[in-house]
Amino acid sequence: MVVKPAPAAPPLPALAVRPAHVAIIMDGNGRWATSHALSRSDGHRAGAQAIRPVIERLGEHGVGVLTLFGFSTENWGRPRTEVETILKLGAEFIDTYTDELNRNGVRLQHLGDPARLPGWLRRRVQKAVDRTAGNDRMIVNLAFNYGGRADIVQSVARLLAEGARPEEITEEAISTHLATAGLPDVDLLIRTGGEHRVSNFLVWQATYAELYFTEVFWPDFDAAQVDAALVEFARRNRRFGLVPTTSVEDAGTAE
Ligand code: FPP
Predict the structure, then answer these.
(1) I want to staple 67 with a disulfide (CB 3.0 to 4.6 A). Which of 96, 130, 141, 199 is the partner?
(2) Closest atom, ligand 1, to C-alpha of 143
């Protein structure tokens, strides 16, 4: 993969609060390509190149977990050549950046069912996961063949396989059997490319996430865009279904 030199990043804005877990739907590669008279493959390539500076910037902000939607369970329905391009770019990303991410304390993890991934990608993912397993500065989850509903189904299936009784199928039990077990819920869900949808991403984990939609196509999402999303997050008033007062009379008007 050709490594584009990243333009100098703007000074880091101070934030009163920051998300522990950021998830990103990297949308708009195809439209970015069309707007530059390039092929969809070129768009995905540019999209893959946009990832590293975003990881770096989120790391500078002290974000502990980043989950990237690389390939959804629905994406298998795209033309075969496009599917191959995206999966190959995933493998190339791992080949190009695992060493550097490892040196910088990043732990790579995979979310999604590996069974349907081609062996060459599965092996690379596993190698990168094993290689970076001891790191604790930041976790980067690569969601490949991931679907939010499938994640919930497999969590419940695991619980049942463990012999859980109906009363043991609790929210906590489901959470601890999801692909993201042990990680905080998503605080900030970013979707680039102008669509306002969650598209079967981390549907359970993002229940109380702040949603940030931007018109910017993913290949143009850079350090300044990361800053803008985090500044907006810090402005939001998160209530988690409660009210912003401690008054007992006012309680009970959950949204
Ligand atoms: C959405 O754009 C993007 C994808 C379905 C694939 C994202 C993949 C990458 C950025 C490359 C490899 C990934 C990793 C994690 C290394 P779209 O094709 O739906 O764009 P459009 O809506 O403009 O057509």
Answers:
(1) 141
(2) 15
Residue ranges covered by each domain of the chain: 22-235
pLDDT for the residue numbered 253: 43
181 Cβ partners below 8 Å, 6+ apart?
Answer: 175
Residue closest to 235 by CA, chosen among 188, 202, 201: 188
* Catalytic (active site) residue 187: no
pTM above 0.90, yes or no: yes
Q: Which amino acid is at 144?
A: F
As a whole number of angstroms, the distance between CA 200 and CA 102 comes to 30
pLDDT tens, residue by residue, 11-21: 999 999 999 99
Q: By the 8 A CB rule, do 10 and 223 touch?
A: yes
pLDDT-derived band at 246, boundaries 50, 70, 90? low
Does ligand 1 lie within 6 Å of residue 193's CB atom?
yes
pLDDT score recorded for residue 245: 58
SS3 of residue 198 by DSSP: coil
Q: 180 — alpha (psi -120 to 50), left (phi > 0) or beta?
A: alpha
CA distance 42 to 216: 17
Topology of domain 22-235 in CATH is Undecaprenyl pyrophosphate synthetase (3.40.1180)
Please tell me what DSSP assigns to residue 166.
Answer: G
- Examine the pLDDT at 27 and tell me if it is beyond 80: yes
Question: DSSP characters for 111-135?
Answer: ES-GGGS-HHHHHHHHHHHHHTTT-
Which residue, judged by its Cα, is nearest atom 6 of ligand 1? Answer: 70
| Ramachandran category for residue 75: left, alpha or beta (phi over 0 → left; psi -120 to 50 → alpha) | alpha
SS3 29: helix
The H-or-E segment that residue 72 falls in is strand 65-72
